[in-house]
Amino acid sequence: MKHGFSWQYDEFKQVGTDYSTKAEVAIYDSSHADFRDAEAESRNILAALGITADARLIDFGSGTGTFAVYAGRRCARVYAVDVSQAMIDHAAAKAAKAGVANIEFHHAGFLTYEHNDPPVDSVVTTFAFHHLPDFWKGIALQRVNSMLKPGGRLYLHDVILEETNALANITAFVDKLTAAGGERLREDTERHFREEYSTYDWVLDGLLSRAGFTITSKQIDDGVLGTYICTKN
Ligand SMILES: C[S@@+](CC[C@H](N)C(=O)[O-])C[C@H]1O[C@@H](n2cnc3c(N)ncnc32)[C@H](O)[C@@H]1O
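That is the input. Now the predicted structure with S-adenosylmethionine docked in place:
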């Protein structure tokens, strides 16, 4: 789909925080550690998906590669996909340092990655899907669905909004992250809502079911942070 349409959304053009710069990549892990436990998240994702040693999975928006490296140690193959070459380089260096050799890195995204191997058991994406506007989220989910085995699973975690009290919930979320990570994290979080494309859970529910998924479980924490586990129909 890289050369599909002249009007195709350019997913390589960063919106909001610019993850294409080495400076942003260099501070990513430490700044996210202020409000996330990457190791615990990775463990929970693999448990939720029931990942076994023979499983293969795609991680879209793999970022600095923390999850990919964790998963690579515990499954057969990880396809780590990201539109930022700086992120890919950083993640590949992290994998090499950890001695994890079963990760394939792809400089591509939800709309452009071509999966040429057999369909995978699972697709994981954390804090990346909000980079696409809603129409393109729908196209991306159809593509993700086609890369999964029948019965394969999608784990999607991101900023996803409940409609009730959305503005109050966002304000509380910005305050919570500012308390955890200071002014830098406040700027990051505010920029997220100002410039990026987080959407309502009811929009995402519709996009997922229309793309051929059954929502197996769904949780929205603080009305703002969503975790979906979906099964390919
Ligand atoms: C906030 S980081 C999340 C990284 C990692 N998944 C995590 O949970 O820490 C967002 C990542 O998504 C990537 N990204 C942005 N748009 C994308 C797209 N359309 N397809 C794939 N990756 C994308 C960015 O380059 C960045 O590395």
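The pocket of S-adenosylmethionine is lined by residues 11, 19, 32, 60-63, 81-84, 87, 109-110, 126-128, 131-132 (CB under 6 Å).
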